[in-house]
Amino acid sequence: MMGSPDAHQIDGPGGAHPLTSKVAIVSPSEQTEVEVDYLFLQVAPETGAISDAQNCGNMFAAVGPFA
Question: CA 39, CA 46: separation in Å to the nearest integer?
Answer without folding.
Answer: 22
